Amino acid sequence: MWEDKKVLVNRPDEEDNKDKLRLTQTHLEQINANVRFREISNFFESVQYLHIVPQLLRHPEAFPGPDIPGDPFGRKFLERVAKTQERTRKSRLKKIENALQTAVPQLKHLSFVKDEAGVPHLEAVYEHWRPKAGKQREDQFSDGTLRLIGLLWSLLEGESLLLLEEPELSLNVGIISKLAPLIAKLQRQKGRQVMISTHSADLLSDNGIGGEMVLVLIPSREGTEIHLSSSDRKIVDLLEGGLSIADAVLPLTAPQKPLTAWEI
């Protein structure tokens, strides 16, 4: 570990050589050792990763086993909603409902309820051709709707760095193309930094996405190289010529040669 040009930590050190078990932990993990750079350790602890698995959210009881720290896959998402202060919860659900109108226009009155056994649920009215619209709970929501609700809640929930993996999953093209401005709008309300991994041309087609916002990961013989799009003159020229970031960047991530049937 370096600070400017000064070496702070260089392991393995003499103590590590005496006790090999020390090498099972980094300096960042050891409270007694990380005092000089605990701010970095605290930052990494605050980072939130989200990749909602709809089946876990609908039926958490069907997946026994130890909980994963941070609940990255949404198994206890409804418990998090339940523990939120009522006023805050209602405010967030209203904002999510308004945002969902673009994606699911039939969905109205998104609310939090508990059943007779005290189990928390999300409930919404789905308007249809019948005079009286029907109420549905999260076990009847589509995968895409559940992912969107979880994503939007997380954007409103905290202020630390949020990592989202392929938020376009289970969503149709029309919705995906509106994700970037929707995420940006909610992100600005909390001032939360968001990092997204995606392969979606539809998500990246929004003209509001600039080259300074996109990191391109390119596999190489020595590992994966990361390039900032705005530092690549070819990409900048394409963007200045009117192309979207999707048109300028995604061809760079395509395989250099097509796979043959034998290779597949």
Account of the protein in words:
This protein has helices at residues 14-18, 38-46, 54-58, 77-83, 86-103, 143-157, 173-176, 179-190, 233-240, 245-253; strands at 2-3, 6-7, 48-50, 107-114, 120-126, 134-137, 162-165, 194-197, 215-220, 223-228. The protein is globular and about 70 Å long. α5 (86-103) packs across α6 (143-157), α6 (143-157) runs parallel beside α8 and α9 (233-240) runs antiparallel to α10 (245-253). It has a three-stranded parallel β-sheet, covered by helices on one side. The chain is of the alpha/beta class. β5 (120-126) and β6 form a beta hairpin. 20% of the residues are buried. It has three domains: 1-46, no CATH class; 47-203, Rossmann fold, CATH 3.40.50; 207-264, no CATH class.
Task: Give the key terms.
Rossmann fold, 3 domains, three-stranded antiparallel sheet, about 15% strand
